[in-house]
Design brief:
The chain is of the alpha+beta class and 162 residues long. It is built from five helices and four strands; from the N terminus they run H-E-E-E-H-E-H-H-H. The chain folds into two domains: 120 residues, Vaccinia Virus protein VP39 (Rossmann fold); 34 residues.
């Protein structure tokens, strides 16, 4: 929807040229059970505020989450920060937790009507973990490997391959 060509690009072009797309809001990855990719909201408004006419607001809230066991979770303060960024067009806490940029239609047109947030904002990545967490994950993986090897040895022995 955000960047594919063909008919989808023509639909995006029409919506943007008619100034109906108000904002593209990026959400964190792994929020939903069915997919780990980041979700995205497209906000449409028939009548945009004067300061947003001829532009699209890009909001990157991909860093606004709490890690949970099986999926990420957005806390009320995360939702409030993204909502405030959408309303004001500014990073509400000033620490870069939510990135915001008002992009003129001309720039979007120059990018082939591509609405990928990463084209207009530096998106957040969560590639770093603490040394303590990394060591814990390593120990857990090593223990799981030992358990799997022990189980394999038992099954091979039971099958007469020991």
């Amino acid at each position: 929807v955000l960047f594919r060509g063909g008919v989808e690009a023509k639909i995006r072009q029409c919506l943007i040229e008619k100034d109906l797309l108000d904002a593209v809001v990026g959400l964190p990855p792994n929020l939903f059970y069915s997919t780990s990719i980041p979700a995205c909201l497209l906000i449409f408004r028939a009548t945009k505020p004067a300061d947003r006419k001829g532009s699209v607001l890009f909001v990157d809230g991909s860093a606004c989450f709490t890690k949970a066991k099986n999926q990420n979770e957005m806390q009320p303060e995360h939702i409030d920060a993204i909502l405030e960024a959408f309303r004001t067009g500014d990073d509400p806490d000033g620490d870069g937790g939510v990135q915001v940029r008002l992009v003129p239609v001309d720039e979007i047109e120059g990018n082939g009507w591509d609405l990928n947030i990463g084209r207009y904002l530096r998106t957040a990545t969560d590639d770093t973990i603490s040394l303590e967490d990394a060591l814990t994950q390593l120990r857990n993986a090593q223990a799981a490997l030992r358990d799997a090897e022990a189980e394999l040895d038992k099954r091979l022995e039971a099958a007469g391959y020991a």
